[in-house]
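Two quick folds needed for the group meeting slides. Do the first one here.
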Amino acid sequence: MKKHFFFILIITLTIVAGAVSWSMFLRTHDAQDTVDVFDFPMVIGEWESENIPISDNDYAVLETRNAFVRIYRKPTGEEVMLYVIYSQTNRRVAHPPEICYTGGGSTIVSKFPEKIATDAVTDGSITANRLLIDYPNYQQIMYYWFKVGNSYTASYWAGQAMIAWKNMTGQSSSSALIRLTSVVEDDDQQRAVDIIRGFAAEILPLLNQYIP
């Protein structure tokens, strides 16, 4: 009888704890981040950057001002645009960027997952989403992935599940979207891909330091 009672008690407490954790996960948080993504280096090796302004309307959509868009350039002419959005408490800030590309005259021609670099911290490969985007006058290659604490994923839903799990287990559940783009010049998509992949390899060791 006692064993039966304690078994029911444990199950009940587990359900209650799960419900409380899930409600906390779904709640909109207004707490201020203690990490400022603008501290991310503007000079990385040969790459030098400039900030691109984000409009107040875009900030409102993002639900945070802890985000930046930068163009990084090398003296040899390569250019990459880096977009980072981050929150330590609001899981909704990191959403798939395709949502923003449904209008404005752009078309997503292709999308597929691809390993982009190796994370020296976890000794594992980072898988990103690779997109080819058509604009009226040019094409663009995009790679993006999500970072939850020190974990990486190309899947939005896997990222949301990671946040829920890390919340319930008391781990860091900060959420970030990292997006890299490069314009396709002279119909040379591979060159744009190589530029992004080379830049990604340089910034990856910095992500856990500046975007924990």
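Then this one, please, same format:
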Amino acid sequence: MNFMGRRIRVSRYATQHAFGIALALAFGPVMLQGIDSGSQVVMRELRGQSLSHSLIGTDPVRKLAVYLPAGYENATVRYPVLYYLPNPLAKFDHNFYSGQVRELLDRAVANAGIDKVIFVAVDMATPLGCSWYVNSPVTGNWEDFMVREVVPYVDSNFRTLAARDSRGIAGDFMGGYGAIRFGMTHPEVFGTVYALHPVGTGSGIYTMYSRPDWKLLTSINSLDQVKDSPFGPIFTSIFQASVPDVNRPPLYIDLQAHPVGDAVEIDSAVTERLRENFLLETMIGKYADNLKSLRGLRFDWARNDANQDHVYSNQAFTHKLNEFGIPHEAEEYNGVWGTGNWGMDGRVYTEVLPFFARHLVFEESSTKARRD
């Protein structure tokens, strides 16, 4: 059914998510039954020159997991590529990509959910969690790393269809933010975008300045102290990406606010820079034509997220896209973020892969995307 222009689905997952959480707590991640498909996951490390001069000691050596479909080694054909930005708060785990992800993709191909595709997952986490996928003198040039190093590396080392029409990008949570942002800034590289429950799409119910511990941030002596505050790492990472200041160690940020007694004084100029550089809603007008050029754009969010800022901002984001006439799909689903994305009933299998199956070009001679 439709609600405020969004497709709302009450899925089998929605009625079983509590049971699924209990299983996950008891047994860990649910793994799919393996099938002997002949696919493989290759783990690589890439030294990013774009990341070699950060002020906070970002490791320039990054991990890549590359899924190669069955028959890749003995074939001569080229394949489309789906890039995936995982939630940087989760560990970049070899076993996950060689096990659960591989088996899910195998089943999707076997069940005609998508044709054979190369799947590339990239570790883009900083010491505090998220790079926010932008160029920053503090954390490194992540945008350049992805566009100028990762994509060319994959195209040079694997048999890819090296064109934007055959190249998609997806991401989860903060990775979803990155997927949309890359679609905004580099539609010549990524032609199709899917964001799972993105954050940072716009203003939430709470103001950004109400979250950080400003007394801590104004008196801090080391980067590690940030981790003593519940919101310290995530907001510091946002500030390092969006309002960096190379002359203010150890955090190297401009402060959006300062404590004045029991009150907080807001710096209007820093706040304006923060909004312009961070919130995706503020960039829609600038990148509207880029977004309109995409073959497909879709994002979703869980209605029952404990942080209703994410629900509110995504609801507003789809309306703002509509104001600029940007074609897209947006879905608010009945569930809780962070459970059920991976698995036969998960959104990657039921929503993400079929979406890319409809919009990616799978053959070199194709001039149009496959349609169901």
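Slide caption for protein two: Confidence is low (pLDDT under 50) at residues 1-34, 366-372.
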